[in-house]
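The freezer alarm interrupted the setup, so I double-checked each line after restarting. Inputs confirmed:
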Amino acid sequence: MKQNLPTRLIKRLVRLIQPKGSLNRSVWGDLVLMLALLLFGVFSAYPMVFIINNAFKPFNEIFIFPPKLFVRNPTLDNFVDLINLMADSWIPITRYVFNTLFITILGTVGHVILASMAAYPLAKHEFKGVRTLNRIIVYSLMFNATVTAIPGYVIMSGLGLVDTYWAIILPAFAFSLGLYLMKNFMVQIPTLYIESAFIDGASHYQIFWKIVMPLVKPAWLTLTILSFQTLWGATGGQYIYDESLKPLSFALGQIVGGGIGRTGVVAAVSLFMMVVPVTVFLVSQSSIIQTMAHSGIKE
Amino acid sequence: MEHTQPTTLDRKQQRRRDFQKNKPLYVLMAPYFALFFVFTVLPVVASILLSFSYFNMLELPTFAAWDNYRKLFFEDDVFMVAVKNTFMFAIVTGPIGYFAAFLFAWLVNELKPKIRAFMTLVFYAPSISGGAYLIWKLIFSGDVYGYLNATLINWGIITEPVQWLQNPDFIPVIIILVQLWMSLGVSFLAFVAGLQSVDRTLYEAGAVDGIKNRWQELWYITLPSMKPQLMFSAVIQITASLAIAEVAMQVAGFPSVENAGHTVVTHLIYHGTTKFELGYASAIATVLFVVMLGSNLMVQKLLRRVGT
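Predicted 3D structure, all chains:
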């Protein structure tokens, strides 16, 4: 069958981004779907491109009319301004950065370790209560922490954790999504490994640390990025009132509140907020995809 | 292995031996579940209990029976606005976010591996970038330097800058837009992963069995093999869509103009942390909890039928 020119052209185009040998594909369908992908890709990327460009724009380019998306004479002025701006204020920017890094790193490491420890018995052993615990974890995915914010505050203040990093870190240790994913990933480790180690005289602790943990490395990374995602954006909201303990997200909100005059500085902070988690994701993407393949809820 | 126990042991001894044998397992789980209990289970229970009380943090709670709920449903007009907004946000961002997550995962899955990795990043990045969504505030800024205003003026579509974030007609639309921008998160990744793990041979077999196009392939092969991911992502998406608050408060302000960005969660925060009516706030939280759990369980039931 002889194909007309546009059809052949589209096929060429599609071949550029699609692997060979996709079955059952009509050319026009390909075109429409690829256009949709492009359109929404632009929607998704636009604010990020905006941030990156504005972060490096000199003052006169930010307020140019008509506005231009791309920077022409990149400069580091905004980053310098950011440091100066915050130097005048009572809390230096480095303090906010430190708070966010501290909360995110400690919270993430603790979460990965505690959730893995709890996931191993739930995934690989039969004992009293295992089903109930697994069910509770699934149910806990069905509501959001905001629901429990009020008694959460009462409990925090009862424990004396208000105005400490721990008010954000300790609940983060026990995120249920992480335990859920880790457990699902561990389920597919062959039970044979564990049983034969047991017969060789290894204890549960040794099995967990020396056999199971190395096998679930992809899941560590997944828990890391998800916990990172939550903690990195945490503003401290109702638990942290002491200015010097507040995280960077909070400071960013304050700077944005300062209005349009600070566009460049806002873009500089946003860029920093964006670059770190995106880099973490970039490095660990394939491991994460591997873990998420086991994310499903089975009956 | 564990089922060949001697019958002479009585139950008590048996239980003790089980516990001894499993002790390390309980030790491993203890730290996580202790925290989980304190910060997740206990607050839910406390919230339900407090919802039947008057409580202001300073005095001990006193019993209020159904008073809080009566006030909430029959006397609080702002709550009704919050409910209306919450459902509107949830009904738009929930399903659209869910389908978008699936659609884009499905499209991304057809790409060559390198391009696939790049596009996955493009779609996923907004949801992991922390406070970066605040940039939308500058895009929609109400003066002539606001990016959207400047662009529209330049194109001659408007002559005066529009106060996007002060106009109750635009506020919900903008909140939904920003929320959708951030909605390709965990569920999107679950879909990308799920699609990659669908057994390739099923498609070849399907082609032999007379599947003609990609839509049939999707409905008869892909969706049924991804049921667990479909259920997981539904949970994540429903929960997130009913809890919209942070974005609403940051983008539209708190309180927002004519409560256009007021949701059940911001209502809860207002009564809990501004007015210190903790009993009342707990009643709001309990209602939300029931709605979230209820809609999740309902959707789970529906999704079990996919492809059957």
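Quick read of the result. Chain A touches chain B through 109 residues (CB under 8 Å).
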